[in-house]
TrEMBL record:
It comes from Sinanodonta woodiana. PANTHER family: CLAUDIN FAMILY PROTEIN-RELATED, EPITHELIAL MEMBRANE PROTEIN-RELATED. This is Claudin. Keywords: Membrane, Transmembrane, Transmembrane helix. Gene3D superfamilies: 1.20.140.150. Its main location: membrane. One of its GO terms (cellular component) is membrane. It is a multi-pass membrane protein. The keyword Zinc does not apply.
């Protein structure tokens, strides 16, 4: 059990927490136009006119295909980050004798990070394109997903680095 495995486990946990928070927040993007402000996440949006005291939040029911793709990528990233956390914990702390567990956790964590980054990039590209006439500003959920993706990739690399290698690999045909 090396330091890179423990740091990878911590990074993977941080990535999972950021992914959960960014997925649940209704603050991925904010739209402004004269006397109207709206924020939107992956599952709900909130809107408020300047004369209103409270924002009205509603579930997003009718979505375009790119939105469904972003949701799918983020949920795949979330589930893979959770699986990588479990495998990383088992491979680093519980059963470090089984060498391939941390390797699998590393590849799953890297894939989760790529899914999160791809979902955020698709969201940013399509939202900026479709929001003509509005001032668009990305909010806290969007950078959380970017950071979660980057930290997930770093955690995966650390898991792979923590995989114990045998000193004599000359007998290994692979």
């Amino acid at each position: 059990m090396g330091k890179s495995g423990i740091v990878g486990l911590i990074c993977c946990g941080v990535s999972l927490i950021l992914t959960v928070v960014s997925t649940a927040l209704p603050y991925w993007v904010q739209y402004k136009k004269s006397n109207y402000v709206a924020t939107s996440g992956l599952w709900m949006y909130c809107s408020k006119g300047y004369e209103e005291e409270e924002a009205q939040c509603r579930e997003i029911k009718v979505v375009q295909e790119y939105y469904l793709a972003v949701r799918a990528l983020v949920l795949m990233g979330l589930s893979m980050a959770a699986i990588a956390n479990v495998l990383g914990f088992v491979g680093i702390l519980v059963i470090p004798q089984i060498k391939n567990i941390s390797l699998v956790a590393g590849y799953i964590s890297i894939t989760a990070g790529i899914c999160m980054l791809t979902g955020a990039i698709v969201f940013a590209g399509r939202t900026s394109y479709l929001a003509k006439g509005y001032f668009v500003q990305f909010h806290v959920g969007f950078p959380f997903s970017l950071v979660a993706g980057i930290v997930g990739i770093v955690a995966g690399r650390l898991f792979i680095r923590a995989m114990p290698f045998e000193e004599n690999q000359s007998n290994n045909p692979l």
